[in-house]
Specification:
Helices cover 71% and strands 1% of the residues. By secondary structure, it is mainly α. The protein has a two-stranded antiparallel ribbon with strand order 1-2. The radius of gyration is 21 Å and the shape is globular.
Length: 286
């Protein structure tokens, strides 16, 4: 009965946006306005990156395959390596994947048909304990199902698999909206602070900026000012980190032995050594 109600909703009817949003929310907990908002943010992000992105047919397929492998790499599947599954990074990689799913869906003009799938998937979710068994199942879903649907441009089934994983982990559609917005704000923050030109520093006192952003959103109310307040808090944290980084960079620049060492380092490896030095100095500073 609930599924019939959902399937009868059509997103392209403005009167439904106005009159049935509360009904949808009361029955399912799904916020239609937030769905519209993140689709709008995805359009905006795409336009900022490439104003002609739809005509240029960007390679979202390859992006999703690569992002999928990064997600799988967060899972403890390597028999030759001692590691544990990084659940926090899986969350981030899932949201990164969702950006590409939405972008491709907008390009194919099928995004309006997807929101009902989100609602149905959430009402049918079965939360599982985060353990290595579940991690291995997620790996198999990504490798054996998700990537196959992506390769055929089947965004409906790609999103279906994505949602199965997301809701199994105990997250909600509200978490989709919240973490999606977090990633959107962080992407904009990076661009505003020299990401393209190489000036941006991604490690903040030994932690990646993604991790810092995740920590910040646990303390920021999820309301109309959520994105603006997150940007402000990111700016504060980055400024604190930047003063430390500048001291490190000054040391590196003026230290004769360091410069003699770096001259001998191949160009391809130089960035790795600089990042290591920065991370180590941040660790010592803290």
């Amino acid at each position: 009965m609930k599924n019939d109600f959902i399937n009868n909703i059509k997103l392209d009817d403005e009167s439904i946006h106005k009159n049935q949003n509360k009904e949808i929310f009361d029955k399912t907990g799904f916020d239609l306005q937030s769905w519209d908002e993140i689709i709008g943010l995805q359009r905006k992000l795409n336009n900022e990156i490439d104003p002609n992105w739809q005509a240029n047919k960007l390679d979202w397929k390859t992006a999703m395959v690569i992002e999928s492998t990064e997600l799988v790499d967060s899972i403890n599947w390597k028999w030759w390596k001692n590691m544990s599954t990084d659940w926090a990074n899986i969350e981030i990689e899932m949201i990164v994947l969702l950006h590409s799913i939405f972008a491709k869906s907008i390009e194919l003009n099928i995004h309006s048909n997807l929101f009902g799938l989100v609602v149905v998937s959430e009402t049918q979710k079965q939360i599982r304990t985060k353990n290595e068994e579940l991690a291995n199942e997620i790996k198999n879903k990504i490798i054996n199902e998700f990537i196959g649907f992506v390769s055929r441009d089947d965004m409906v089934n790609s999103l279906r698999i994505w949602l199965e994983i997301w809701f199994t982990l105990g997250y909600s559609s509200i978490d989709i909206f919240k973490i999606y917005k977090m990633k959107y704000v962080l992407n904009n923050f990076r661009q505003d602070h020299g990401y393209k030109t190489g000036e941006y520093v991604k490690l903040w006192n030994g932690k990646e900026d993604n991790v810092i952003a995740q920590q910040l959103i646990t303390t920021i109310p999820y309301d109309d000012e959520f994105m603006n307040n997150l940007y402000i808090e990111l700016d504060k944290e980055y400024l604190k980190n930047l003063s430390t980084v500048k001291n490190i960079q000054s040391f590196i620049k003026n230290n004769l032995k360091w410069n003699e060492f770096m001259i001998r380092v191949p160009d391809d490896d130089r960035k790795i050594f600089l990042e290591f030095a920065t991370e180590y100095a941040n660790y010592m500073e803290s």
